[in-house]
Amino acid sequence: MYKRYLKNQIKKSLNEGLVVIIYGARQVGKTTLVKDIMTDYKTPLYVNADEITERTRLQNKDAKELKGYFGDADIIVVDESQRIENIGLTAKIIYDTYPEVKILLTGSSSIELASKIKEPLTGRSREYILYPLSVDEIAFTNQNKINAINRALIYGSYPGIWNMSFSRAKETLRLLATNYIYRDAFALQTIYDDTVMYNLLQLLAFQLGNEVSYNEIANTLQISRDTAMRYIDLLEKARIIYRLRQYRRNERSLIGKLRKIYFYDLGIRNGLIDNFNELQIRNDKGALWENFCLNERQKAQQRTQKYTKQFYWRNRSKQEIDLIEESSGSIKAYEFKFSANKTVKLPKSFEKLYPNTKLQVINAENFIPLLQKEYPLKSM
């Protein structure tokens, strides 16, 4: 079992008397994490809402009936809680009537769960995203972290995948990429076309690291632009992909602009295009490295709770900066180059617009020390 940095933040929120909701895709380690948290309590109750008999015990019950079910439990953990009708109202009843009881909910279908808890738990809850494993969670020594990086670029960072043989990992990722997305990612009432959604994901996987045009996607898939935007929005809410916006000081100028799209897990991305070749023979190594660095920075920001707004920058001459991070009005620029031999300078047009901005090039050799410097490791 891998220790997760998110554990301490979750425990802190529970101790503050908040209902904790953990979002994350299947296989990302939610069940393992919550069961680890349960060991810190005397009388925990675990409810697997995938089981019909389990979820009916929490559906549409009053305070007395709920007490009769959970008894003297000091924490109630409901796994895959989006499957329980009115789970938000149930959690509110327990929260209001039995404040001494801790409540922890998880959900793979973040769209469905969010719709069920938004109103009942307003002001009573704290939400967290559980990402795939970070390099710091996988390995403790810097040498092992370097080895972990090379594997993560090909097979991703799902906990269950990490200890598999390469052949078994490939087969599992192919199945996850083609099956789990449609089964678990969306609310049951979400209407979409399986074939179009899969073709869209493949198209996005091939365009990794490039600007994405909604019009171009619509034309390629023979769907409307609105449908393309809706499907991409669904995939983002389901924590399968995420978008990076162009950087402009004038926020209104961003409306309708192009976006870059990345995957939360590179194993899923590589499974979609069925490419698990080694790095030295891949022509997408740069895009994989860019996606990996962005993912790890998001995990590090969550770990240290030092958040920034993230963008990319590109001008009409197609000069580009991979990442712009903005915090408290100041900005930093980053370029991701796998090879340490590549030198990069800020485009003069960018320097003119944003003087005194420093550019940091992140490569495979300096990645670990730079990340540890910006986001110092904390004990788990």
Write the layout of secondary structure elements.
Blueprint: H1 6-15, E1 19-23, H2 30-38, E2 44-48, H3 52-56, H4 63-70, E3 75-79, H5 87-97, E4 102-107, H6 110-117, E5 125-129, H7 135-138, H8 142-155, H9 159-162, H10 166-184, H11 194-206, E6 211-212, H12 214-221, H13 225-237, E7 241-246, E8 259-263, H14 266-272, H15 285-304, E9 309-314, E10 320-327, E11 330-336, H16 348-353, E12 359-362, H17 367-374
Parallel strand pairs: 1-4, 1-5, 2-3, 3-4, 7-9, 11-12
Antiparallel strand pairs: 6-8, 7-8, 9-10, 10-11
Description:
The chain has 380 residues and is α/β, with parallel strands linked by helices. It folds into 2 domains: 6-129, 3-Layer(aba) Sandwich (Rossmann fold), CATH 3.40.50; 135-374, Orthogonal Bundle (Arc Repressor Mutant, subunit A), CATH 1.10.10. It has 17 helices and 12 strands. The protein has helices at 6-15, 30-38, 52-56, 63-70, 87-97, 110-117, 135-138, 142-155, 159-162, 166-184, 194-206, 214-221, 225-237, 266-272, 285-304, 348-353, 367-374, and strands at residues 19-23, 44-48, 75-79, 102-107, 125-129, 211-212, 241-246, 259-263, 309-314, 320-327, 330-336, 359-362. The chain has a 7-stranded mixed β-sheet, with helices on both faces. A 5-stranded parallel β-sheet has the order 2-3-4-1-5, with helices on both faces. Helix 10 packs across helix 14 and helix 12 crosses helix 13 (225-237). It is globular. The mean pLDDT is 90.
